[in-house]
Specification:
- The chain is an alpha/beta fold.
- It has a single domain (14-139), classed as Oxidized Rhodanese, domain 1 (3-Layer(aba) Sandwich).
- It is 42% helix and 13% strand.
- It has seven helices and five strands; from the N terminus they run H-E-H-E-H-E-H-E-H-E-H-H.
- The chain has a five-stranded parallel β-sheet, sandwiched between helices.
- Strand 4, helix 5 and strand 5 form a beta-alpha-beta unit.
- 30% of the residues are buried.
Length: 141
């Protein structure tokens, strides 16, 4: 069976349809009450590279299930309509596709970071270790 639409086309289509922020734009909003940064990378990536301070981790494979209130896996963090959810992955490809999927589900308060965590770290934006991320997450529980 031949593939009729490759990953490059899917990502390009998603990028044309979603809101994309630069690292500088998101960095300037860190800590804002109306922003929730969402790391959609696999936990092994977080352990290896760290993450963005204050982010919520929602692995790409579970994202739609965690966002949908009708799902048994729903996470209430996604029910806060006062927030803009800004997703990121490693390079910005998965987050573009994920942002488009959430838009297709009806979310209008969703965007992603151009270049993903790689661009974030390369541009000297703040990073927390996975241990710091876990400690912060558990301190809110």
């Amino acid at each position: 069976m031949a593939i009729t639409k490759g990953i490059n086309e899917l990502v390009a289509q998603a990028m044309a349809e979603v809101k994309t922020y630069s690292v500088a734009e998101v960095k300037a909003r860190l800590g804002a009450a109306d922003l929730q940064i969402v790391d959609i990378r696999d936990v092994r990536e977080l352990e290896r590279e760290g993450t963005v301070p204050g982010c919520f981790n929602a692995p790409r494979g579970m994202l739609e299930f965690w966002v949908d209130p009708a799902s048994p896996y729903y996470k209430p963090v996604f029910g806060d309509e006062s927030k803009e959810f800004v997703l990121f992955c490693g390079a910005g490809w998965r987050s573009a596709l994920a942002t488009k999927a959430l838009q297709d589900m009806g979310m209008t308060n969703v965007a992603h970071i151009d270049g993903g965590f790689t661009a974030w770290a390369q541009q000297g934006a703040p990073v927390e270790t996975y241990e710091q991320h876990k400690a912060r997450r558990h301190s809110k529980a």
